Amino acid sequence: MQVCLIPLLGPFHLRYPAYNSVTVRDMVQASNPDALAITELTADALDHPGWQDTPEIALPLSIIPWAKRQNLPLFLVHEPSPDPKAQADFYRYANEYPQLAQKLSQVNAQLRPLNTLLAETLGPKRIMNEVLPLLRDYQSYREELLEDGPATDWHRSRVETMAERILNIQVERLTVLAGIDQIPHLEDALTGHVSFLELPEVASSEESQERSILDFAFRTDVPEPGNVIAKLRTLTSPEARYHEANLLLANAHVQEALGTLEKASQMDFQEPYYLPGFLLSRLGQVYDLVENRKAAIRSYRGVLALSYAPAEALEAAKAGLERPFGKEEVPSKEG
Fold first, then answer.
1. Phi, psi (deg, nearest 5) at residue 196
2. N or C: which end of the chain has fewer CB within 10 A?
3. Is 255's pLDDT higher than 90?
4. pLDDT at site 333
5. Is there a contact between 86 and 48 (Cβ–Cβ < 8 Å)?
6. What is the per-residue pLDDT across 190-229, written as a single tens digit (0 to 9) for each?
7. What gap in Å lies between CA 91 and CA 41, rounded to an integer?
8. What pLDDT is recorded for position 335?
9. Which residues does 205 contact at the CB level (< 8 Å), separation at least 6?
10. Residue 32 is inside which H or E element, if any?
C-alpha cells in the first residue's frame, strides 16, 4: 500500500495562509487517494453532527465535505485515551515531587524552539522540514524521561493502534490525515509495511486565497479593519458578509452590521458548518442592540432549532433568550 501522510494543525490552519484548510484539501485531492484515513475521528463520529466541534477545523471546514461530494471512502481510526483525566492528574501529582517536577520542567523546555517556530508564518515545506523534526525530538525526549503512559496520555501506544487500523485498509493508495503530533509515531509504526508518498505540492488557488481572507477576518482584533472589510466586500459568500458584520460591529457600526447580517441571512448560509449557528446568534445580538427584542428572540430560537450549531453559538443563543445582549458585551477591535 502507498500512503501519503498529511498533517493537520488544528486552529493553526487559520493562522497559516499557505497551509489553510483549502490548501490541505487541495493536497488531499492531488494525492489521488483511493480512500482517506482520519486519525482524529472515532469510527462512529460522523453518525452525529456534534463531530464538527473537533479542534481539527480543516476536517469540517473543507476536507470531509469535499470527500463526501467525491464519494471517497472514509476510514475513521482514532483511538481515544483510556483515561482522559490521567495526564492532568499525573502533572498535578508530579509537581509535588521535586525530582519528577524537574523532569517535567526539562520536558517543557524542549517545547520552546517548537513554540517559537509555530509563531511564524509556515507553509508545507517548513512544516515538514522544520516543525516535524523538532516535534519528533521533543516526543523522543519526553518518552525517554517519562515513558509512554499517563504522562504522555499513552501517545505512542494509541498511535500504534491507529496504525494497525490503517494497515487493515485494503486499498492501493491511501491518504492519511493525522494530527501533526501523531505523524512521527505513525511514521515509525508504518515504516516497513507501506511505501510513503511525498507530500504533494499545490499552487495557491483562488479559493485558497479567499479562504485566507476569511480566516484572517475570523479575528476582530485585525490591525486595519477597513482594509479587511474592503477585501471581504470583493467576496460574494454569506460567510464573507458574516465576518464583515463582525468587524463593523467591533468598530461601533451597529446599523451597518445589522444590514450586512440581514443580507447574509437572506442568502444560502448552510455552509460552512459553523456559519448557521454563528450568523443567527450574532444577528440576535445585533437585534438586541437596536432594541428589536422580538426579532432577537426569533434569531436565538433559530439557533436552537438547527440540527447542529457550535457550542459557542448555542451558549450565546441561550444567554440571549434569558436576557438581552448589551453594548458592554460587544467584542472590541482590541479583542
1. -85, 135
2. C
3. yes
4. 46
5. no
6. 999 999 999 999 999 999 999 999 999 987 577 888 999 9
7. 26
8. 35
9. 22, 26
10. none
- Residues 245 and 62: beta-carbon distance below 8 Å: no
Distant-in-sequence, close-in-space partners of 44: CB < 8 Å, separation ≥ 6: 76
| Neighbour count for residue 171 (Cβ, 10 Å) | 16
Q: Which residue type, as a one-letter code, is found at position 244?
A: E
Phi first, then psi, for residue 177 (nearest 5°) are -100, 115
| Type and span of the H or E element at 24 | helix 21-30
pTM value?
0.91
Phi-psi region of 252 (alpha: psi -120 to 50; beta: other; left: phi over 0): left
What is the SS3 assignment for 172? coil
Quick one: cell of 288?
438586541
What does the DSSP 8-state code read for residue 191?
B
Helix (H, G, I), strand (E, B) or coil at 15: coil
Rounded Cα–Cα distance for residues 208 and 21 (Å): 8
Q: Give the residue among 106, 175, 168, 114 at the shortest CA–CA distance from 143.
A: 106
Give dist(CA 279, CA 225) in Å, integer. Answer: 19
DSSP state of 203: -
d(C-alpha 335, C-alpha 332), whole Å = 5
Q: How far is CA 170 from CA 9, 39, 73, in A?
A: 27, 17, 11
64-88 burial code (b ≥16 CB/10 A, e <16): bebbeeeebebbbbbbeeeeeeebe
Phi/psi-derived region of residue 12, left when phi > 0, alpha when psi is between -120 and 50, beta in every other case: alpha
Say how many C-beta atoms besides its own lie within 10 A of residue 121's C-beta: 10
Q: Are 13 and 24 in contact (CB under 8 A)?
A: yes
Longest C-alpha distance within the chain, in Å? 66
Q: Cell 432577537 maps to which residue?
A: 296
Strand order from edge to edge, sheet including 74-76:
74-76, 35-38, 173-179, 2-8, 195-196
By three-state DSSP, how is residue 262 classified? Answer: helix
Let me know if 195 is exposed, middle or buried by CB neighbors in 10 A (0-12, 13-18, 19+).
exposed
